Amino acid sequence: MALNIKKLLVSQPKPASEKSPYFEIAEKYDVNIDFRPFIKVEPLSAKEFRQQRVSILDFSAVVFTARTAIDHFFHLCEELRVVIPETMKYFCMTETVAVYLQKYIVYRKRKIFYGQTGKVDDLATVICKHPKESYLVPVSDVHKDDLLSILEAKKIEFQKAVMYRTVSNDFGANEKFDYDMLVFFSPSGITSLMKNFPDFEQKDIKIGTFGPTTAKAAKDAGLSLDVEAPTPEAPSMTAALELYLKNNS
Asked: Hey, what domains does the chain have and what are their CATH numbers?
C-alpha cells in the first residue's frame, strides 16, 4: 500500500546547510518539506527581569544548560549594563555549550567547567566539586527542575532566574495547513499545535516525534504516532523518516 505523503511539516527552523539529510529525503521520495517552528523563544525585558529582584553580580558562578541560555544571559547583562567580572565561573551542560561561550567572552582566560555526558547528574557532580560558589541558573519560563532539585538536595547555594520565555509561534488565519505529516521535537510544539488548531483532527495525518517526552505529550493529546525517534535503527529524526518513507512508499 503506497502512502501518499507529499507535504511534510518539520517543526524546526530550516537547516542552514544545503547538505542536510532533510533535503536528500525530499528529493529521493519526492516530498515537499516545510520548516516552521511551532514555538519560539523570546527574551525577557530588563524591566521584567528586575521584577525578580535578582542581582547578577551577587553570584560567583553561572550555570548554562543550553546555548539559548547563554545568548539571553549576555544580552540581558548588556541591556542592564552589568559588566561580568573576569572572576566569574561558568558551568555548562556539555563541552559544546561551553565552547559557545566564546561568542561572548575570551574563553581561555575564564574558569569554565562542563559535564562529559550531557546528563543532568553529570553536571551536578561537577558543580558539587565547587560547593563554596554561589550559583545563578538562567532558565526559560517553562523548564525542568531536575538539576535544581539535585543542587537543593546537595545543599548547593543557587538561585534560578527566568531570562527568556517559550511562546507559541502562531499561524495566520489565512495560512494553509494541509500537511500529510507533522514532525515534533518538544512537548511545547504539541501544545502549540493544539493552541493554534483547537479543532485539530488527526484523521490520515501522520505524526512523528523525537524524544520520549515529546512522544508522551503527543499521546496525552490524543494523537497516534507513526514515527518515533531515536531508536537503535534510527538514532536521528531524519533516519527515522527515511526508514518510514522507504518502508511505506
From this structure: 7-38+171-247 (3.40.50.10090), 42-166 (3.40.50.10090)
